[in-house]
């Protein structure tokens, strides 16, 4: 959703966004190589994007800060269980975003205001195992958005929805044929409408091709 007068937005008030499913921060000494690789990845993302979000950290904020995020300089960090959002320090100081929980353990949002325009950036990681839980999470998010988001607000989202909506897609497994139900697809569409008829930006497929790379050794 965009404001009626797009001139009220400056390029700096519209941040670049990334979501990185980090799948645990790997703080143990036995995973030092993975930890180093993940840290290098995050440092690179912070240089390229205004606000990268780390998904699936599996820890609370203080542990994420102690074992990982404090090693990423030049950032202001925002935490919720399972999420860490690292915002470039200068941008955070200028716009002062605040992190809010939309759906516990599933969706958070950074909110700030600039020139009387309210900005929302949602980061999501829907449940990976249960379609009924994903649909419930999206219903809760839809109600949250309907109560708050108004015409003229600036809204975007990024993350891992943990289901596919196109028959040409599959989950990240070569053994389990799977498609979402119509109810799942409808729940996703309803949430998109609640944040202003949002649309997805197509991205290169990664997970599915990676399955075959891993299986090939």
Average pLDDT number: 85
Structural class: alpha/beta
**DSSP strand content:** 15-25%
Q: Tell me, briefly, the overall form.
A: globular
- Could you say what the CATH architecture is? 4-Layer Sandwich
> In percent, how helical is the residue content?
25-40%
Characterization of this structure:
- By secondary structure, this protein is an alpha/beta fold.
- The protein has one domain: Deoxyribonuclease I, Chain A (4-Layer Sandwich), CATH 3.60.10.10.
- Helix content is 33%, strand content 24%.
- It has six helices and eight strands, in the order E-H-E-H-E-E-H-E-E-E-H-E-H-H.
- The strands form two sheets. The chain has a four-stranded mixed beta sheet.
- The radius of gyration is 18 Å and the shape is globular.
- The N terminus is likely disordered.
Topology:
Blueprint: E1 17-21, H1 32-48, E2 51-55, H2 61-67, E3 75-80, E4 83-88, H3 89-95, E5 98-103, E6 107-114, E7 117-125, H4 131-148, E8 154-160, H5 182-194, H6 207-215
Parallel strand pairs: 1-2, 7-8
Antiparallel strand pairs: 2-4, 3-4, 5-6, 6-7
Could you give a quick summary of the protein structure above?
This protein has helices at residues 32-48, 61-67, 89-95, 131-148, 182-194, 207-215, and strands at residues 17-21, 51-55, 75-80, 83-88, 98-103, 107-114, 117-125, 154-160.
What keyword list fits this structure?
globular, 217 residues, Deoxyribonuclease I, Chain A, alpha/beta, disordered N terminus, four-stranded mixed β-sheet
